[in-house]
Amino acid sequence: MKKMIVGILLGMTMLFLALMSCVVPVYPTNLPTSPALAPVLVTTPVPLPDYYLVLGQDLVDPAVQSAQATLDAGQQIINEISYQATLVSLNINLAARAAAQATLDYNQAQLMGLAIRGTEVAQNMAWAAATQEYIVDQTEQASAVTATAHQAQIEQTQMIWNATSTAQSHAVTATYAAYILNVTQTAQGQMQLDAQDVRYAQANATQQAYSLTATPMAILQSERIQAQAETKRKSVWMDFVVNPLTVFLMTLIILVIILGWVLAYKRFMPVFELGLRKFVQEDNRPVVLLEGRIIETIPVPAPLISAQPEIYTPKLASVSLAQIEILGPDEPSITNWITEAEQKLRFDGWVQS
Amino acid sequence: MNIQHYLPAARLVADVLPDILAKIGLKPFISRYVLTETQQGNAWLFIVLEVDPLSHLEDYGSAEVLKYLSTSLNGMPVVISNSYGMRYAVLLSSPHLVKMAQA
């Protein structure tokens, strides 16, 4: 009983040590003596912003913080410059649009002037026609004497009128051509402004895309996103694979250790018990105490099965020391013994005649 | 038949069997002897063994050992019974029991 209690206590102790070795983390016994590492071990942890919490504690370095501050300041300056450039570009665009509008207004005013001039020319032509009709009427009413003179005068007047009309028509045509040219140039300027707008939009989009992909902030954001994804992936891996597998393996190891103890106990306890039963007599003969009887364990000679067996005959006047129990065949154990013996007997070829 | 009739033969077997086992190199770890008689008149003597755990158990039940024991006991049938323990069963007397020829 004491052996069993001692065995249970030893087993519980080993189990407790095994569990403690599984649970308690192992710290290095020889801490680094480097002065660069010593402050890290003794300083109190400072709460970190979310950004560094996401990226991990490896970035909590003054140099990294300074670099990050520099990057943040530079990014702000870049943003401000970009904003100013955008404003200037917009102003230029607005000015160009204003200039085009002014050109259009000028052309419109010039067109109005040309229209007025055309009206005046038309009035002059109407006046000239009325004058011509008046002259013709006067001429018809005049005498035939002056018909030739009048006819010459009429022809002269007609020539003058024709020349005037031609000149005015040329002037109007030239003015209209100039107007058309001006309008064409304005349209070309408007197209150039539109193309400039397109280029500006493309440059702005390119700048925004560059700011999203190639700036230090974009790089840091990308790294942060990657770190978040990796942290999430590691968390899922730890929660659903590593931790359950660790618990399962620990449990399996503990069960294997317990099973090993049980098997070792069952295997070696009889040996230990037999060792306790053996002792040496005074004449150096080893004996075994078994079932209340002392049995000598002196090695016997080699088996003599090959030798001819000796038939033992009853010895007269001998006193038997063996105690023979007489039991009835109805007892369950005796019944089983008899049944098994008879089966073996029949198996060996013995039959009832 | 009265079981006491087989008691002398049982005592004889109990006396000589340890010596026979010792002669063939087997330790006679015998714990008890049980004598019984069936309804058919077969008288059985069971020699219960407490064999050393380090010994080879198959040595005690080999055919050569059983044949040697049977011959040493003047032809008495001897079988080994090893369910729920190991024991020899010696048929002391059996009417009309014959041994069939081995094939």
Walk me through what this model shows.
The complex is a heterodimer of chains A (353) and B (103). Chain A has helices at 2-23, 38-42, 50-55, 62-141, 147-213, 216-277, 332-347, and strands at residues 278-280, 286-290, 293-296, 324-326, 350-352. With 353 residues, chain A is mainly alpha-helical. A three-stranded antiparallel β-sheet of chain A has the order 1-2-3. In chain A, strand 2 (286-290) and strand 3 (293-296) form a beta hairpin. Chain B has one domain (3-102): Translation Initiation Factor Eif1 (2-Layer Sandwich), CATH 3.30.780. Chain B has helices spanning 7-23, 57-60, 63-72, and strands at residues 30-37, 43-49, 78-81, 86-93, 97-99. The termini of chain B are far apart. Strand 4 (324-326) of chain A pairs parallel with strand 1 (30-37) of chain B.
Q: Concise description?
A:
The complex is a heterodimer of chains A (353) and B (103). Chain A has 353 residues and is mainly α.
Distance between the termini of chain B: 35 Å
- Total DSSP E strands of chain B: 5
Oligomer: heterodimer
**Which spans of chain B of ≥5 residues are poorly predicted at pLDDT below 50?**
none
Q: Tell me, what's the shape of chain A? A: rod-shaped
Tell me the structural class of chain B.
Answer: alpha+beta
Portion in beta strands of chain B: 25-35%
Order of helices and strands of chain B: HEEHHEEE
Q: Given the helix and strand composition of chain A, which structural class is it?
A: mainly alpha
Tell me the domain tally of chain B.
1
Strand order, main sheet of chain A: write it out. Answer: 1-2-3
The share of residues in helices of chain B is 25-40%
User: What CATH architecture of chain B would you give?
Assistant: 2-Layer Sandwich
- Provide a count of the helices of chain B: 3
Break the fold down into its secondary structure elements and pairings.
The complex is a heterodimer of chains A (353) and B (103).
Chain A: H1 2-23, H2 38-42, H3 50-55, H4 62-141, H5 147-213, H6 216-277, E1 278-280, E2 286-290, E3 293-296, E4 324-326, H7 332-347, E5 350-352
Helix pairs in contact in A: 1-6, 4-5
Chain B: H1 7-23, E1 30-37, E2 43-49, H2 57-60, H3 63-72, E3 78-81, E4 86-93, E5 97-99
Antiparallel strand pairs in B: 1-2, 2-4, 3-4
